[in-house]
Every structure is written in C-alpha cells, then in structure tokens.
Amino acid sequence: MTLRESVIYVVDDDVSAREGILGVIRSAGLRGYGFASAPEFLAHPREHQASCLVLDVEMPELSGLDLQQRLNAANDAMPIVFLTGHADVPMSVTAIKAGAVDFLTKPFDAETLLDVIRHALCEAGTRSISGQPAPHAAAQPREIEGIVGGSHGLHAVLRQVRTVAPTETTVLIQGETGTGKERFARALHDLSTRKDGRFVKVNCAAIPAGLLESELMGHEKGAFTGALAQRIGRFELAHNGTIFLDEIGELPIELQPKLLRILQEREFERLGGARTVHTNARVIAATNRDLRSMTALRTFREDLYYRLNVFPIQIPPLRERMQDIPLLATHFVNLLATRMGRELNPISAEGLRQLSRHHWPGNIRELQNVLERAVILAERGTIHIPNLVDQAATPAVLQRFDEPEHQSSAPPASETAPASDGLAEVTRVHILRVLEEADWVIAGPNGAAARLDMKRSTLNFRMKKLGITRPTTRRAEEP
User: Fold this and answer.
1) 448: confidence class by pLDDT, cuts 50, 70, 90
2) What is the CATH topology of the domain spanning 327-391?
3) What distances in angstroms separate CA 102 from CA 77, 88, 95, 155, 303, one per listed residue?
4) Which of 27, 70, 321, 421 is deepest in the core (most CB within 10 A)?
5) Contact at 8 Å (CB) between 404 and 464?
C-alpha cells in the first residue's frame, strides 16, 4: 500500500476537532473517516483496513485507552496516535507500552499531526501481514542505540541524523549542556560509511589554549620545550574516520584560521614542521553557545561559522520533550540497577509526575544523576523521587548559566541573594588581584587561569558573572 492509499480513522467526540483533523488529513491527499465515539467505530463495518487510528483519550461510554485494549485483545492492533487535552505522563506511558506510536497534547499544528501520522504509517509499513519485519524494515530503524524517547521533537532530530549520516557533510550539533550532543555525534558516525574508522573526540574547552594546536595537528620533535618526540595529532588519527570537536565555541580565535584551512583544503602542518599532512577526517562539531552571536562580537570567525554550519542539528532540551521522561527514567533505572546488582520496582506514577514537574536545567545529565541517587537510596526495592519542584530553574536562570556569553557584565542586584554577596565580593577581589599580578594575561602557563588552577573558559565565565573587565585606560594613565 502506498502512502496515498493509506486510510486513517479519526475517533473524537468533539465534532469541531474531528472535522478539523479530517480536513488536515484529506488536504495531504490521504483518505480519512471520522467517528463520534468508540462504540460507533467498533459497530461500523470497515470497508478499508485502517492504516492508522487517531484516537482521543477522553470520550464518553468508552475511553480511547479502553478502545486500544479491546483492539489489542481482538488481535486487531493498528498504529495509534493518541490525542489529549492535557499532558498526563503516566497515561502516556500506559498508552505507549500498549503499542501507541505517539501521544499529542492539544492544541497542535497541522504539520505536527501530519508528521506523526506519516511516522505511524512508516511503522505500519515495517511489518508484513504475518507480523514479521518487512524486508526493507532494517534499512529504516526506528531507534538509534543509546538514544531513548518517542517525542515528536526527538523523532525530528533522528530523521535529520539518518538523512545526513551517510554523507560527507560537516555537521554542527547545537544544544544546551546535558542534552547528549556527543551521543548524537556518535550516532552520526555509526550510521555513516566511516563506521569502521576511528571516532576521535576532542573537548576544546578541556585542553589549555597553548596545547590545543599540538593536540589537534600534532608536533615535530623539538617544536617547543618538552617536545621530545614527534606527536600525531587528532586530525591524523581520525583519517578516514570522524573527528568530534566538542565545545567548539571555546576554540581560541588564533586557532580558528587553521581549522578553517583544514575544513577547506583537508591539509595542515604539524607544529614545528614543514611537511603538509593530508587528512580525510569528517568533522562533527558541537556547542552550547550561540556561535552566530559570537561572530557579531568577533569572538568567533564568521567564515569558520559558515563552514561548520553546513548541516545544523538542534537538540531539544529535556523540558521540550517531557513525554520522554518516563522512557528515559525507566532506561536509566534499569541500567543503574543492573550495574549495582539491585532488583527494583518500577517508578510509581506519582514519582513520574514528580519528575515531569521539574524544569531540568541540567537536562538528561541532571535526570540521570537524580535517578542514580534515588537508586542508591532505594529501600526494599522502592525508588523514592526527591522533591525537585523547589529546585526548578526559570528559563531566565537557565539562559544565564547555560549561555554565559549572553550575560551582562554585572548581574542585576535582584538576581543575587544577599547571603552570597560577601562570598561573591571576596571571589571578585581575589580574581582581580591575580589578574593584576599576571598583567591581565589569562591563558598560558603564567596566566591568571593557571595561577587560579582553573580552565581559561571557566575564568572568562566567572569574570563576566562578577562584572570584571580589563581596564582599557590603565596603562595610558600611568606616568
């Protein structure tokens, strides 16, 4: 059956909603039939085998979930898309476990509905009449190993990943801290023709600026003090494989032209060397910063930004895919229980509600940490979810701490707790004193970052947070 031959049944007691959904379905060239209730749907002789069922959850006489159970019991299972007027995490878990393809909360736009229906039709197409996978099913896997969820936002990202993975195109993955950008980079490599090659990771924020060039491009013996032997750089190691440049927004401005040359010419010279080295590494970069804004501030080269941003992928934060929390929570609890050798009961419905009410500024990484603590503290196999509501951060707080480049030079007084004023002032005075001692040099072995025993990016972040800026007229005023 082709997509145009697909038949979609819509069961919704709200006549305006039902007719609106049918209008969207028919405008896409699909055949749609509507029913005002579940009993009417069951009693009506179906002339066409349903390709997909769009089903309202709350209906009189027989609810959508009850209808799903009856269809399953009668071995009349079909892809189901549930509609509901309000998000209910435990209900969505029950529906998805019973075989629902997706769970949409009203209101939703027409494109979202059609996208979910197309996905449901693809799911139906991956099984033959006998219930076994169709021959082409393996070529279009629904899930990617290590990436858990069933939300519309995640499905959209996975489609992008599957589309671009087989190509040689440079990919820029953007998303907040803790959204799993490295996991998606690994998926791009594993689904590519380079999957048998190396996947080489470089965290641009974790390596001191003075060593990053040597780390990326290597160096020759004697290139600098302490270079006792030749070193092969990460781009050479990733030849015919993939190099993943994490935290690319932290790449020092002086190294950006060299990376641009590698992207354009696929060649470079090792530090202290004259021989040109060629590399066939595919580049995947990731950042939690707004590189476009950084180009306007001249802290990131515009030409490099365009070279990296050939195929951008935006990873949604966890607060935008809340319906994935039950699946993620179950996944993490099972992993942690296996690792710790414990037998645990599933998280209760109230526990899932508690998780769904949190804002998750730390995204999936924060969720995993919360669940790890809960598993450790579980008594008699019962997992207790701590009260997270009071810890939830507002979007403004999230932006301040996840995107430090957007902060003002001094935080408003209303955003700073009085109890922390003393500590903040002591920290500010200490950093200022060290900066003066280092003559305002931040990087390098004698720079302020090294003296404070912190990363250069961390020091820059704290300087912005504390309102510390280099005095531009200091030297001009000296006698």
Assistant:
1) confident
2) Helicase, Ruva Protein; domain 3 (1.10.8)
3) 15, 13, 9, 10, 41
4) 321
5) yes
